[in-house]
């Protein structure tokens, strides 16, 4: 039975608890945004006030040639300022990226009952979770997004337990991306004056997760958000966008040719490109040298949007702290040592609120 879109409790049960998601609600036929999804004015995304990030993507194939130093400089500059950049010639086949987008649309195009079997409470696998918004029970206004999250342990379990519609292409995406991730981490840590051996690089990406996000069409994008303001908790995030756009990043300090402090910049979709962003773990590790990027997603009224991120993080049991060489050099640790699992619990226990999650690791200077 269809819920009353004017009854908040009834709608919450239908979308969240029964697993119909935002898509199930949209499929009922919407002429206006239901009240639980209307964001406070300060959280809405005004396209007219945002600028577009017009810098050319970084050609990753140049890292192994005579332009090595220039490519390193481009990567480091991006990570010390905006925390976001785009890569082309990254080693992940473009036809695979197209197949990924198709697989995401196919998964979310299924009847709700087929997706709802992966709800956290009933999922047949601890590696797979289907949900909507971020932490719906804690949010003042819900986010206009459904997602499927797939944790990687090994190839065999992924091929056995991830959803059949997308398991093979998602696994291939993850595996072909990891060489790029390792090279990026080598570049970034060497720039800090630290040589990490393979085991320490492995520890920074000890847990890997592939998500598929689905943003259904929205009758009034000006009132909603696809994802609220946040930074990612992990080390590096690799993101595939489709051609629709809607990803916005906050400028934390004035950057020539990009924007002024406090402005939001749209990261436009580029054919064949992957978006890379710094997570909180790398900000902690670098003692604040690299900046995890505060970002958010706008909805669209024209066509449903998909995005497919890979989140790389330490394992929950791993300890995370600023690299001792950097603390010795700078004279002060800005973040405390913590068990990453504790950081994760705090991150997922609260609604999105900018970079507030980093407060959990911050050392008060007072």
List keywords for this structure.
five-stranded mixed beta sheet; eight-stranded mixed beta sheet; metal ion binding; alpha+beta; Feruloyl CoA ortho-hydroxylase 1; 366 residues; 11 helices; 19% strand
What does this structure look like?
The chain has 366 residues and is an alpha+beta fold. 30% of the residues lie in helices and 19% in strands. It is built from eleven helices and 15 strands. It has helices spanning 8-17, 21-26, 68-80, 94-108, 112-116, 155-161, 167-191, 198-204, 280-285, 324-330, 340-348, and strands at 51-52, 58-59, 84-88, 128-132, 146-152, 207-215, 227-230, 236-241, 247-250, 264-266, 274-278, 295-297, 305-313, 319-320, 338-339. It has an eight-stranded mixed sheet. A five-stranded mixed sheet has the order 1-10-9-12-7, with no helix packed on it. Helix 4 (94-108) packs across helix 7 (167-191). The chain starts with 7 loop residues before the first helix and ends in an 18-residue tail after the last helix. The mean pLDDT is 93.
């Amino acid at each position: 039975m269809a819920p009353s879109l004017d009854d908040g409790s009834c709608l919450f049960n239908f979308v969240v608890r029964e697993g119909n998601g935002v898509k199930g609600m949209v499929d009922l036929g919407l002429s206006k945004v239901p009240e639980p999804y209307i964001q406070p004015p300060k959280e809405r995304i005004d396209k007219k006030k945002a600028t577009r990030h017009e810098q050319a993507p970084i050609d990753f194939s140049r890292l192994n040639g005579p332009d090595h130093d220039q490519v390193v400089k481009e990567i480091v500059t991006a990570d010390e300022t905006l925390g976001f950049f785009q890569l082309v010639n990254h080693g992940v086949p473009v036809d695979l990226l197209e197949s990924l987008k198709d697989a995401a649309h196919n998964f979310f195009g299924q009847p709700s009952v087929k997706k709802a079997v992966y709800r956290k409470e009933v999922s047949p696998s601890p590696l797979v979770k289907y949900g909507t918004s971020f932490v719906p029970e804690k949010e003042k206004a819900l986010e206009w997004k459904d997602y499927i999250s797939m944790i990687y342990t090994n190839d065999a379990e992924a091929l056995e337990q991830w959803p059949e519609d997308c398991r093979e292409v998602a696994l291939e995406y993850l595996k072909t991306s990891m060489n790029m991730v390792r090279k990026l981490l080598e570049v970034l840590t060497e720039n800090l004056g630290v040589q990490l051996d393979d085991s320490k690089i492995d520890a920074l990406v000890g847990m890997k997760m592939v998500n598929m996000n689905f943003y259904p069409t929205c009758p009034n994008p000006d009132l909603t958000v696809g994802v609220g303001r946040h930074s990612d908790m992990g080390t590096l995030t690799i993101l595939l966008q489709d051609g629709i756009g809607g990803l916005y990043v906050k400028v934390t300090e004035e950057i020539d040719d990009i924007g002024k402090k406090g402005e939001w910049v749209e990261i436009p979709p580029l054919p064949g490109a992957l978006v890379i962003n710094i997570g909180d773990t790398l900000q902690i590790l670098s003692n604040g040298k690299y900046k995890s990027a505060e970002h958010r997603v706008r909805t669209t009224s024209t066509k449903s949007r998909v995005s497919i991120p890979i989140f790389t993080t330490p394992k929950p049991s791993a300890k995370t702290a600023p690299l001792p060489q950097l603390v010795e050099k700078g004279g002060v640790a800005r973040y405390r040592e913590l068990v990453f699992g504790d950081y994760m619990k705090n991150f997922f226990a609260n609604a999105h609120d900018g970079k507030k999650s980093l407060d959990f690791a911050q050392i008060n200077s007072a």
